[in-house]
Amino acid sequence: MKLVLIDDDPMVLRSLKAVLTDYGFNVTTFQDPLKGLEWVQENETDIVITDICMPSCDGFEVLKRLKEIDPLCDLIFITAHGQIETAIRALREGATDFFEKPFNTFALRAAIERTQRFRNLSRQKALLANQLNVLNNELEYKTSSHNVMLGQSAEMKKIAQEIVDISNSNATVLIIGESGTGKELVANAVHHSSPRSKKPFLTINCASIPDDLFESEMFGHRRGAFTGAIETRGGYIEAAEGGTLFLDEIGDLPLPAQAKILRLLEQKSYLPIGEHKERQADIRIIAATNQALETLVKEKKFREDLYYRLTVCTINLPPLRERKDDIPLLALFFTLQFSGEMGKSIDGIAPEAMKLLMSKNYPGNIRELRNIIENSVIRSRHTGLLRSEDLPGQQPLAKKNEDIAQNSWPMDTLKLEEVEKRLYIEALNRTNSNVSAAARLLGLSRGKLRRRLASLNIKAEDA
Q: What is the pLDDT of residues 160-184, one digit of tens each?
């Protein structure tokens, strides 16, 4: 945890720095608030602790400028003028906490640790909101509120264009792909790119619902409709009204349930258990499977009429082994994501580690790559680049000669800077050259991203 102390009283700075350093915090002090802000702009900082009444620049001006430099940096006020009006103003304008001098250092320590926990939770929330879904940026999302689109391979550019074409219609969509290829994320992309984006997006895993509960879960029931129905309950269709219902692993749906889904698709209506009047359903159905439904149809395990109803629009997701051009960007993104989440200073992936990642076939696809990177970041005990020894037992699948790993590399260079440069430019493009937004997208602080952009000679306005 990196702290910056700003106070025009040198005695306060010395004593408070000594106490916080003993608590294990990394502390830098400044009497001049303007110099402190300059330092924050150039260095990664977690929390600024500042006085309010200072001659050159008061604490509220420090707060305003700090949020312009790094919106994610927290600020705690300490002041000898602790009027209630001042405290209310401080919290309204974005301060994390407020202490009146003299204060209990144990209480300040607790506030810092509480702020640290909140920062970690906020960071995790942001990372989940920006979870990678392996597509490219032909889909126009509303900044950070939905998933990030990333992918440079021709296959994923084609997928992205298909999503653009499909999203404006109300047609049923079937997404086909192996486990771990991101089927639910693609379904989410279709929903959020459609006119239904402000309505619910709900997911049902068809394999996880027992046969005798499927109808109740899907369509709902009235009180007393069956033993155990102690209250009237709406189903998924009612909950998804106006939005999208995603039926994952639809190949595992039993035949009786298939008949009910077929009627829903054909009639746009459904009948809750215990009711006698059908209800209209205003929802879009997106389904996904990792099975060959044509084979299941031939084996009489899947209804042919339902199959044709589902395949009005089809998206085939290629496995990761067939689009290895995306591995460097995906791996680097996951590395930055987990490094930020775990509070580690891992800035990228060493070339020899990337060779090992490129040599794998990934039967678990993106999920497997993500797990490998997460495990590697957990195991790493150093800063800088993720090394080959950090990878959990990863070895090239074939090593007959030196050219094998090189031939699997999608670029004409092994320089980490080239991969980094592509990722940073991509992030800037997606955020209209907003460095703060790009930093949040990548899981980095604004200061760290600015330093990396400068070292790679990238100007935000040129991205």
A: 888 888 888 889 999 999 998 889 8
